[in-house]
Amino acid sequence: MQQIEKENRLDWFMQDRFGMFIHWGLYAVPARGEWVRNQEKMSIEAYQPYFEDFDPDLYDPRQWAKLAKEAGMKYAVMTAKHHDGFCLFDSKLTEYKATNTKAQRDLVKEYVDAFRAEGLKVGLYYSLIDWHHPDYPAYHDRIHPMRGSDAFKAAQHQFDRYVSYMHGQVKELLTNYGTIDVLWFDFSYDEMKGETWKASELVAMIRELQPNVLIDNRLGGNLLAAEPESYAGDFASPEQILPPKGIVNELGNAVPWEACITLNQHWGYHAYDEDYKTAKTVIRGLVECVSKNGNLLLNVGPDARGAIPEKSQEVLREVGAWMKRNGSSIYGCAAASFDKPEWGRYTQAGNTLYAHILERGIGPIAFEDLQGRVKQARRLADGAEVNISTPWNGEAFKGYLFANFPQASLPCDIDTVIA
Ligand code: FHN
Q1: Is the entire prediction scored with pTM above 0.80?
Q2: Where is it found, in Gene Ontology cellular component terms (predicted)?
Q3: What is the DSSP string of 51-108?
Q4: Which end of the chain has fewer beta carbons closer than 10 Å to its terminal beta carbon, N or C?
Q5: Which atom of ligand 1 is nearest to the CA of 129?
């Protein structure tokens, strides 16, 4: 496979901007979030009934892919293995996998096939942490044993065996499932980072198998350093937060980033979590990400039968209605060369400036520093001409353009003017 330079490798990522995160696995059965085993200090035996019961009869990844596409998403990242160690793929290195449950299906293979068939790029999430593997020294009272601890030292030879297992599974995922566009590792902490995972060796293998796969920054390197480690990754991955000013490295250069955000308050399915973000909040978040050179990876947590919650579907469809009319202000766009206006945010692609009107005040919208620089303005959603004027020459209005146009035309009450 031809290797393209890192900058080009990211081209599709910077173009697509909006993806679906999918957290799915045995934890959907207890339906109390993906950390349930640890938070409730369940033994492997206490968690085993969820393995026995897992039977996702409604799993239809083609429907998931169609929903992602309808929402305006261009790529997806699904958990191949989360911290509980359960593998959604047919790994030859463990029996703790979906093909050994009542599902008897390789859920990852069906996912990659379905999303590719709908024209979306496919990513896989892989947990470095593994609460099931006997050689990963996880203690319920301490989720992550400190690397330097006596207990850890005693288990060193075992841990090396776990790292070999982890590398072997990454090799399976990059060998048996076609072109993988994103490998999303999760997560490093304390001493458990970098060469503890033998990360240089791991990334060398990854680059050998699939040179153009994008890797996140959670193997434990410093992506913002002037000279990042080989395993520092291709993009930063802020979680449940948007960086105030975007992300730059020590040299002041913009660093590609992707904010991963939940639709409700949990990554994995939670039967009682009704605290969902509105479509308007999601769209504002997506606009903010792109206005700061970032992507949004928005999470769904399918239930134990393999269905994406109805409320998630409802929000995604409403976001999609806005994207259908305004997507050109997101795809292939980035931060504008103008300061953020008080009424909203700008995104820009080449000579086209998109003004996202998020706050409505009294009277027209004021555009600073744009006099003589705007040939015409249109409301993106319906192509309607937007009247641009420079009012009578009072000092207070000097240097501003003013745009008059009707209240938002879409239910999300966010209008975008193309200038
Ligand atoms: O512990 C995980 C969590 O379950 C979830 O997968 C998030 C998603 O980025 N990552 C870790 C928490 O930072």
Answers
A1: yes
A2: lysosome
A3: HHH---TT--HHHHHHHHHHTT--EEEEEEE-TT--BSS--TT-S-BGGGSTT-S-HH
A4: N
A5: 1
